[in-house]
Structure formats: structure tokens, C-alpha cells
Amino acid sequence: MTREEIQSKILMIFKEEFEIANPGLDENLTEKYDFDSIDALELLGEIETMLGIGLTRDEKKASMDIRTINQICDYIEQLAKKRSL
Amino acid sequence: MEKRVVITASSAITPIGHHKDEVIDSLVNGKSGVKELRDDKLLSDYVESKVFGTVTSPIEFDFERKYRKTMGPVAYYACQVVKEVLEAAGLDKGFISSGRLGVAFGSTHGSPTVQRDIYKTFFSHSQSKFSSIGAVDYLKSMVHTTAVNITKMFGITGRVISSSTACTTSSQSMGFGYEAVKYGLQDAMICGGADEYDTTTVAVFDNLLACSTDFNDTPHLTPRPFDTKRDGLVVGEGAGAVLLEEYEFAKKRGADIIGEVIGFSCNNNGGDLILPNTNGITETIRLGLKNAMIEPDEVDFVSAHATATKMGDVAEAMAIYRAYGDSPHVTGLKSYMGHTMGSCGVIEAIITLYMMEQGIIAPTLNLDKVDERCSMIRHTTKLRESDIRIAAIQNFAFGGVNTSLLIKKFE
């Protein structure tokens, strides 16, 4: 999956699941859109479905400091690389 | 010091209507809200009772996602009625978040729809969902989901009471809310209950042979409280909320006072968890009268729990007779909408307030021939133009829990 494809899918998830349309790629989602810890956990579920994998506890914990769309894309790229997807 | 507790706003979503005019129209014209049970692709084929007290009024839930995300259907109902109550009451936003307003609200299960989805994930052997329980599934299905979704949506910071005692859930909400205001713990309480469309509850009562099955082809003819042909209860859905305020506080802010809570009682039968118990009910009624400091003959109207089970109605009629004699008018309001479970107490209280305001007493629907064993009390068999000054709303639940709530027309 290319970076553009990941970004496109994440933006679609944000629009459809979180009702956040076209957020800036480096905007702080918590500060600007009230994206909270519950949303973050829901997003992890979406990422699992998107990649077709189950995330480990450590992988989930590693996502807790993520604040922006770009950081989410980085996280998914790292996961994909680690899992050779 | 004990304080007077008044009711200043109410809202109900019921199988016979959402707004007051709709509900009154159903009462006056004898319209039933019992419909054919919907096919749920799971249990509906296996239960013998094919009727359900169904909400058909269109309701537009205009909630932002940040609130919706932790809500199952039951919390939608709860937040909607509370939204309408707060709009009607016109409470100041500062007061709502002051800590002096609390919430007493519950439901039978949390959201059974969400619980069902969790179990489906567990037992489907599907790998499509890698996180078997969603982050918010617990928040949607926990027993206090209604109460805390209400506090979140409206920024309420006072005490939270979330009774979950099946059929006495919302009568306890009103009673415990009344006590919180009466004893000065809070200046106001939003009280109520809700339950969503749920076939699991139908299956539970069906298994116990307590559900109506003889009128599957004519749903509007059941339930039939106190009638010779009654054959059990009909499960229903709904929600109701009332705002209880300390009288001086309500008066000072110019609130529209629609009634007064003057007493509440709650006890337990101390034994069987299912069978109705005349002694337990009688004691509840007497405790309620004592709490309200009134005599039995001061009660003009009794909203009976009257689920239309063979034994329950007889036990209740006997208890009403023992405590009140044959003087108060008695109506079983479940005859119009079935048993709305966790919301029945508050809905029946709200409908009683409507009748107080309108100067009417609605009859028990489908009461064509009173069962001899229930005939010692004064049944309402036709619409009456009659002033209700003091009313008792009584409810009983599995687990042997009984409540009686005394409401007075505001004078």
C-alpha cells in the first residue's frame, strides 16, 4: 500500500466514521476536532480491519501519542513494513 | 429540614405517542400502541408471543457524533426525553453544571442491541472484526449508560443514581430523585427511565409463560389487565423523564409547576423473586401513604402496575382493596402500550399528570369483563371526566421490588 493510498483510506475513515471531513494533515486532531481516546481506540479497530491484522498490545500502546493524520499514516506505514504487508 | 418537591417538566416517548397531545388522543379514543412483533432474524421466530408495544412516532435525534458515539438505542431515547425536559424547563446553563442538579435514570439492561452485537462477534467465528469488543461497546451497554450519556450531553455534574431494577427502574428513579431533593442533597433532579426495542426480554417472559399469546393476530386486543380473558403481559419500549425541583427554587425562577411529589415508598417481598406478593404490595402502598402523610381515602386515582398476568393482577387488586378499599379509580395504563419495562413507572406518572391537567381518567383498555377475583376495586371501564387531586403510581419488579409514588395536583 502506498503512502497516498493509506492517506486516502484514513481520510475516508475520518469522514465516514468520525464525521471529520478533510482535516489538515498536521492539525492536532484532539485540539481541533475533539478526537479523544475513545475515538483513538475505534481508529485502531479500523486500522486492524484495513490491514487485515490484529494489533498486539505493544503496537496499540505505541499509537497513544499520535495526534495528526500524518502521524497516523507514519504509524500504518511502520506496521505494514514490520509485518511485511 | 424536609423540602417540598415539585414537578416542573416532563417528556415521554411511548407506543401511544411522543408528545402530550398524541398520548391524550390515544387515551381518549382508546388507541392501542401494541403491534405485531418485528422479525429480528434471531429470536422472533422462536418466541410464541408475537406482539410488542412499539414506538411508531417519528423521532429525529439531532445529536452530534461526539455524543452519539457512546450511545446505544436506549441512550438515544433517554437523551431525547431529557433534552425535551430541559428545553421545556428553561433551566439556566450555569445551574445545570453547578452540581446542584443531579440525574436519576436507568434502564433494564443498558443496550441489549449492543450486547447482542458483542455476542455475535464472539460466536460468529469470523475474523473480520479483530477487536472483538469495540472501545465504546461497554459504554453503550453498561447498566448506567442512560444516566451518564445524559450527564455528558448536558454537562450535568450533580449526583448520579442509576437504578436498574427491571419494572421498578424508573419509579425508583423518581422516588430516589424525590428523596434527594426532599432532604436537600440536590436542588433539582432529572429522573426517568428508558428501554429499547428488545426481543430478548420477550423471550425471557415467554419462557416463563408470562407473555400474551392468544391475540397474536389482533395485537390491539392485548394486554387485558383485570379482564377474564387476559393471558399475560406484552413487552414494550419507551422512555420518560421528569424534572423534580425544590419548591422554593422552582417558585423563585418562575417555573411552570405541573404537579407535586408528596410521597414514595419502596420495599421488597423478602422471598420469591418472581411470584407477586399481596402482602408485600399492601405494605408498599401503606408505607407510601405514611410517607406522604395522607389517609387512604385522599387518593383519587391509582395507576395500577397491572401487567395482565393471571396471578399478578389478582394479587394487586387484593392489595389495592386492602389498602384503599374501593374508593379510588383504578386504571391499568399498560393496556394501551404494553409493559415498557424500565420506563413504565415514569411513563405512567407522566400520563397521570396529563390526566390531572385534562380533568379526565382514562379507562383500562380491553377490560370487557372484570375477573371476579379482581372485582372488589373500582375499575375505570369508560372515559371519565373527573378531577384527580392525589394519585398513586404503583410498580412491581422481578426480584420482589415494589414501589408506590404519590403525586398531587399542584395547589
What is the level 1 CATH name of chain A?
Mainly Alpha
Largest binding interface between chains: A-B, 14 and 12 residues
CATH superfamily of chain B: Thiolase/Chalcone synthase
| Number of β-strand runs of chain A | 0
Low confidence ranges of chain A: none
CATH hierarchy: architecture of chain A: Orthogonal Bundle
Organism (chain B): Candidatus Desulfacyla euxinica
Protein name (chain B): 3-oxoacyl-ACP synthase
Family (chain B): Belongs to the thiolase-like superfamily. Beta-ketoacyl-ACP synthases family.
Pfam family, one (chain B): Ketoacyl-synt_C
Describe what you observe in this structure.
- The complex is a heterodimer of chains A (85) and B (411).
- Chain A contains 5 helices and no strands.
- In chain A, 62% of the residues lie in helices and 0% in strands.
- Chain A has a single domain (3-82), classed as ACP-like (Non-ribosomal Peptide Synthetase Peptidyl Carrier Protein, Chain A).
- Chain A has 85 residues and is mainly alpha-helical.
- In chain B, helix 3 crosses helix 7 and helix 8 crosses helix 14.
- In chain B, strands 5-4-6-7-1-8-15-14-9-10-12 form an 11-stranded mixed beta sheet, sandwiched between helices.
- Chain B has one domain (5-408): 3-Layer(aba) Sandwich (Peroxisomal Thiolase, Chain A, domain 1), CATH 3.40.47.
- Chains A and B meet through helix 3 of A and loops of B.
- Chain B: Residues 2-409 form the Ketosynthase family 3 (KS3) domain.
